[in-house]
Amino acid sequence: MTFQRARSEEQRAARRQAILDTASAMLDEMPVAAVTLNELSRRVGLAKTAMLRYFESREAVLLDLMDDRTATWLTELEQELAVVDPDRSGEERAEQVADVLSRSLAARTVLCDLYGAQGGVLEHNVSVEVVRRHKRASLANLAVMAGHVRKHLPELGDHAEIFCLNALLMGGALSAYTSPPPSLLAVYESEPALAVHQIDLRSALRLTIITSLVGLLPRS
């Protein structure tokens, strides 16, 4: 696609959305680390200098995309958590929440990859205003997620938000180890004993989430 210069706020908004949609499609093909501003601008059909009129950096694009994908996921998560049985004990409901969260996050590898890159990469090379907007969106999303979890585990109380933050961060951290490079796969194949700690994202997330929940639930 090619664009003429945007002349109105509506056109600017359309350009920004086209950039976000293209970046999203790229992330379905490649990891966050492989997304470059040059390739993004080529696919969008804008010169790199023109791209910078809409987003100040690659990281700014990906932060906005992470906030958008998180909001979309949280709408789906609310529906997925409906399977939690309110008549079960706190520990049983915690296990059900852990099952849903681990399955849901593990199925969204792009979102986990974005959270894995957030602190060390994406929040760098961006202006104060971009970070401010991102943090406001992040806090709003976190409050929504905590509300979904607290609905099924009211025992968490004020601990719900820190639990949700930890779950997202662990999803990001663990996802980095679930797609080994070819050299590592070759080592595992030639010497299976070295693959003893190879990570399955859903299983690792479930263990982390249930451990966190059990530690935060009040003792009966």
Automatic annotation (TrEMBL):
One example of the protein's molecular function in GO is: DNA binding
* The UniProt record lists the keyword Transmembrane: no
Q: Which SUPFAM superfamilies match?
A: Homeodomain-like
| Key words of the record | DNA-binding
| InterPro entries (UniProt xref) | Homeodomain-like_sf, HTH_TetR, TetR_C_34
Q: Which Pfam families match?
A: TetR_C_34, TetR_N
Residues in the DNA-binding region annotation: 36-55
Q: Does the keyword Metal-binding feature in the UniProt annotation?
A: no
Q: Which chain positions lie within coiled-coil regions?
A: none
Tell me which residues make up the HTH tetR-type domain.
13-73
What is the residue range of the signal peptide feature? none
This one is known as TetR family transcriptional regulator
Originating organism: Actinoplanes friuliensis DSM 7358
